[in-house]
Write a structure and sequence with these properties.
Distance between the termini: 54 Å
Strand content: 15-25%
CATH class of the largest domain: Alpha Beta
Largest sheet: 6 strands, mixed
Shape: globular
Structural class: alpha+beta
Strand order of the largest sheet: 1-2-6-3-5-4
Radius of gyration: 22 Å
Number of strands: 11
CATH topology of the largest domain: Cytochrome Bc1 Complex, Chain A, domain 1
CATH superfamily of the largest domain: Metalloenzyme, LuxS/M16 peptidase-like
Helix content: 40-55%
Order of helices and strands: HEEEHHEEHHHHHEHEEHHEEHHHHHE
Length: 440
């Protein structure tokens, strides 16, 4: 893998047409004439970061409700209309963002625009559908609760943050899901789902003049909505010493989660932290939605913990967030391995990278991984549109390329320096899940 990958990635960002409607909707058009399809995305600047106690999970619930009809769309119409044309569609909610998309044959751009304009302006939030979806989402949450990794991560985030809403799980607290009203959800929708808080990305084969005209026609009459400041007025107090949480539940395996406080992705230390994260746990991209099935094996934690028969699995999650967040590690321990032994092995690797800079060979592996993943994240019009819109929401569509380009110039000494700065005992949060015998 050569530097040409990043040059190609930067070239993909050239020629993007940008304009903003009078109601505040930012539009980015990326032509890919060789494609036989077109992908339409809407990114809303809302996620669990914008919620409060009592309405946690509202953003994720609204995501579900925008598939339930309203205006000229009936329940289930989105999936039916798209699948009838051989296309695909989906949506996701995260801490900082909610996004929807349709990828369709290139002559069906109008359909994607129609769906998103109706969802933005006319989603009904029918009371019966709200109640039906309440049970679906509670069941989704309860399904996640069957996984110890989920429980540990949830406890760590709730322990790490005392004021900032990154403490909320994206799906929401169960009590809030049980008690939130239809009016609570609809107010959340009307407050955040409008042109002034959205970014549209169209990527693929289309005529830009016609696309611009159709976007103007379908979206310009939607009320702009209030301009929502992106700054969250919460000052997270400093952490003085390790925080820890321990869970005991029936099971056969033990689990360990460890998190360290790191700055927002736009911070000057982020490229070096990316390299640090990759040297320790491998790299699985910036966007974060594609790497779950990929297991990096050439990193320090895998070699020490998995090859060393301490853990069957170790995962590293690097945060790409608007505000300071957590660099997160989770370990699934082998049978009979205690969390105490796993912590000792894990922290010895943290101490080692604080004491000794990574070798040039480790750096080269990391750089190649980063360039390969950046190429993958631009593979096809849907992923290109996702990357453009996601990064534009965080700061700029060029952010990913800038981060990776800067990261692959980082030196081993700089990696050691950020390890010493951020991977300290005083800034870490440790979560233990100890399995106990049923009925013990």
């Amino acid at each position: 893998m050569t530097a040409n990958v990043l040059n190609d990635s930067f070239q993909l960002l050239e020629g993007i047409q940008e304009f903003t409607l009078e109601n505040g909707l930012k539009v980015l058009l990326k032509q890919v004439p060789s494609s036989s399809a077109v992908s339409t995305w809407i990114f809303y600047k809302v996620g669990s970061r914008n919620e409060k106690l009592g309405t946690t999970g509202a953003s994720h619930w609204c995501e579900h409700m925008l598939f339930k009809g309203g205006g000229k769309l009936g329940k289930g119409d989105v999936h039916t209309l798209v699948s009838n044309e051989g296309g695909r569609n989906n949506a996701f909610t995260d801490h900082d963002i909610t996004a929807y998309y349709e990828t369709l044959p290139k002559d069906k751009l109008d359909l994607g625009l129609f769906i998103e304009s109706e969802r933005m302006a006319n989603s009904a939030f029918d009371s019966g559908e709200v109640e039906s979806e309440r049970q679906v989402i509670i069941s989704e949450r309860e399904g996640s609760e069957n996984y110890p990794q989920y429980l540990v991560r949830e406890e760590i985030f709730a322990t790490a943050f005392h004021q900032h809403p990154y403490m909320w799980p994206v799906v929401g607290w169960k009590n809030d899901l049980k008690n939130m009203s239809r009016d609570d959800l609809y107010h959340h929708y009307r407050h955040f789902y409008h042109p002034n808080n959205a970014i549209m990305v169209v990527c693929g084969s289309f005529d830009p003049e016609r696309a611009s005209s159709e976007i103007e026609k379908m979206f310009s009459k939607i009320p702009s909505g209030e301009k929502i400041p992106d700054k969250i007025h919460f000052h997270e107090p400093p952490q003085f010493g390790e925080r820890s949480v321990k869970l005991e539940k029936a099971g056969t395996l033990n689990y360990l989660g460890v998190a360290y406080r790191v700055p927002e992705i736009t911070h000057e230390d982020s490229p070096a932290l990316m390299v640090l994260s990759a040297v320790l746990g491998g790299w699985r991209g910036l966007i974060g939605f594609f790497g779950d099935r990929f297991v990096p094996r050439t990193n320090r934690l895998y070699k020490r913990l998995v090859d060393g028969d301490i853990a069957s699995e170790v995962n590293t999650y690097f945060p790409v967030n608007v505000d300071p967040s957590l660099l997160y590690f989770d370990l699934t321990l082998n049978p009979a391995v205690k969390t105490k032994s796993a912590k000792e092995a894990f922290f010895s690797e943290i101490d080692r990278i604080r004491d000794v800079p990574p070798a040039e060979s480790e750096m080269n592996v990391t750089f190649n991984q980063m360039k390969a993943w950046r190429a993958y994240e631009n593979d096809g019009i849907s992923l290109q549109a996702l990357s453009i819109g996601y990064m534009e929401r965080i700061k700029s569509r060029r952010l990913a390329e800038t981060l990776v380009q800067t990261a692959i110039q980082v030196t081993p000494e700089v990696v050691q320096a950020v390890a010493r700065r951020y991977l300290s005992e005083s800034s870490r949060i440790v979560g233990e899940y100890d399995s106990v015998t049923e009925g013990a």
